[in-house]
Amino acid sequence: MNLFGGKTGIKRRPANVRVVSAPVVTKAPAPLPRNLVSSREQERHNRGKFAMIHAADTTAVPRKTSTISESATIDDITVKLRYPSASQRERYDLEFGKDRIDSVQEIIDIAKTVADFYLTDEQAKPFLEPNSGYIRQLEKARNNLANNKKRGEITPRPVLLNDFKAAVDQYNAALQKLRLDKVLEQNLDDKHHLPFNMVKLILNQVYERAVSPKVDLLRQYENGGDNVYGELLPKLVNQVLTETNLKSDQVFVDLGSGVGNVALQAALEFGCESWGCEMMENACTLADAQKREFSARCRLWGIATGKVHLEKGDFLENQRIHATMKRADVILVNNQAFTSQLNQALVNLFLDLKDGCKIISLKPFVPAYHVITDRNDNDPVNNLRVTKEGEYYSDSVSWTGERGIYFITEKDATRRHLARE
Predict the structure, then answer these.
(1) pLDDT of 98
(2) Is 254 labeled as ligand-binding?
(3) Name one GO biological process term (predicted).
(4) Entry pTM
């Protein structure tokens, strides 16, 4: 992933530049709705224990005893949360100041997501009842813990922790009954789209466990080159992939995929086959860790996703990526800091794309004043057509909170012929 910090200048395409319409094409049959339920084989595979990073394992300093009291054990300050699938529960450490993850808040967020997404309104009533529902009990116990902290007590009282653990146990028991009655699976079978808030929650779980503890590895970059690191955030990824009309039966490729964030989001949110390619060693190491944890998280949630492939190496030379690009429907190139030479090399690479493939970028591949003439008839850029210039705002990219521009370009080999007419 190759980006840089600083302000982004916004340049608009002049209104007098000729826009050539795309030829009329026959629409392909509508794709089948996405299936969110894991296959029966996968469901059997999900049962039991598997490798995952528990929230309790992300503590800054591993320890064998609790700081709450001399007699307290690690079990006393650990709670296990059940997820919608038949798989194992997750361990959370409830001791203040020791977790990289806000365990209490994440547990409540998960419970709310389960009630909102996996249950009907009637089934969710015991969870969402405002006075005595399972989630309200979690919130009351959370508030008592927070008040304890406000009073200046460094560690929570054991009785307050026990109240929260008891609320988690009640929630777990209710969810387990629904799972055994096949309610969760039946409800999920009727759904074909994940809400964005749920997508963000799952991606954040993965990132906080696999990347955040080692995020300093990503700060080792070279200013002014093609390998400056930065991330597109889920908000912008959701925006641009939705605008390309990405579907679950399509192929997505991220060129310069960093730690794999966008490739994972495409597979999770849209259910498509998703590819990424990255050459920076540290980013690749963290991307592999994210992919493993992503698989574990989706097993916990019981969600079927698109298959994820993360390649290591130069995307200009990686043959598996080149072969995939030929059948790709959407390609993302985070080219904010790319040199002009690398951008031109990409334009040449785009010659092999199929017509209709959409390219998302932060810098345009087609110059603003470009017009096809006899003199530049063989220029590879003539096969590309800018279909949209869009704006992004705060919480869209990691290197600035200011607004910027993105481009959606389409491979259109007929553009040259239409320009001659």
Answers:
(1) 53
(2) yes
(3) DNA repair
(4) 0.87
Where are the domains positioned within the chain? 59-189, 196-420
75 is in an annotated binding site: no
Q: Give the Cβ contact number of residue 359 at 10 Å.
A: 26
Report whether 96 belongs to an annotated binding site: no
**CA–CA separation, 109 and 301 (whole Å):** 13
Q: Does 261 carry a binding-site annotation?
A: yes
pLDDT tens digits for range 32-50? 789 898 765 455 655 668 9
3-state secondary structure of 386: strand
* 246-270 pLDDT, tens digit each: 999 999 999 999 999 999 999 999 9
Query: Which 8-state DSSP code applies to residue 406?
Result: E
Is 97 one of the annotated binding-site residues? no
Residues counted in the chain: 421
How far out from the chain centre does Cα 398 lie? 14
Q: Is 199 annotated as a binding residue?
A: no
C-alpha pair distances (Å), 44 with each of 84, 220, 230: 14, 42, 39
CATH number of 196-420: 3.40.50.150
- Binning the chain into helix, strand and coil, the percentages to the nearest 5 are 45, 15, 45
Separation CA 385–CA 22 (nearest Å): 9
- To the question of whether residue 315 is assigned a binding role by annotation, the answer is yes
3-state secondary structure 258-325: CCCHHHHHHHHHHCCEEEEEECCHHHHHHHHHHHHHHHHHHHHHCECCCCEEEEECCCCCCHHHHHHH
> Is 314 one of the annotated binding-site residues?
yes
User: Is there a binding annotation on residue 258?
Assistant: yes
pLDDT band at 14; cut points 50, 70, 90: very low
Asked whether residue 259 is marked as a ligand-binding residue, the answer is yes
